[in-house]
Design brief:
With 165 residues, the protein is an alpha+beta fold. 25% of the residues lie in helices and 18% in strands.
């Protein structure tokens, strides 16, 4: 009689690790107080606009009222200049950062910062800038320009910053 033979099981295939197909995006570096040293006048108030090396708009600070994400009518001229620069130079892009003062919860301030940055992006897109040229990011209360605990400091921290690349 033949002895029973155990079935032969095939070896599992070797698993070869692969790199991700799309690399993880790197978040932009937040604007820090040092980025604004040259944009502050003698009284410490933001001058708001910095021109790039080519003389075109490089970055701009737009301030907001407490708990608001509406652009001030005085911001439209500067926003229009940025829009013109981006429309004329489709190879350039902009990062728009939303920031808040320290009042409110972290979650609320992240959402408010997002709304502030999006308000700037919406204006630019309405003026012909492609959405693919814009990156919107919120830092909430995490990156203050002024660490003071008073209205003057809070006013400086309630901002959106556009940085043309």
């Amino acid at each position: 009689m033949d002895e029973p033979v155990a079935p032969v099981e095939p070896e599992p295939p070797e698993v070869i690790p692969t790199a991700p197909v799309v690399p993880e995006p790197t978040p932009p570096e937040p604007t820090t107080p040092g980025d604004f040293e040259e944009t502050v006048d003698d009284e410490g108030n933001p001058k708001n606009e910095v021109l790039g090396e080519d003389g075109r708009p490089g970055s701009h600070v737009f301030n907001f009222e407490f708990d608001e994400a509406d652009l001030a009518s005085g911001d439209f001229s500067a926003l229009s200049r940025h829009a013109e620069a981006l429309v004329a130079n489709r190879d350039r892009s902009a990062i728009i950062e939303g920031h808040c003062d320290e009042r409110g919860t972290r979650e609320y301030n992240l959402a408010l910062g997002e709304r502030r940055a999006q308000a700037v992006a919406d204006f630019l897109m309405s003026a012909g800038v492609r959405s693919s040229q814009l990156t919107v990011v919120s830092f909430g209360e995490e990156v203050p320009i002024d660490a003071g605990n008073n209205e003057s400091a809070w006013m400086k921290n309630r901002r959106a910053v556009i940085k043309i690349k």
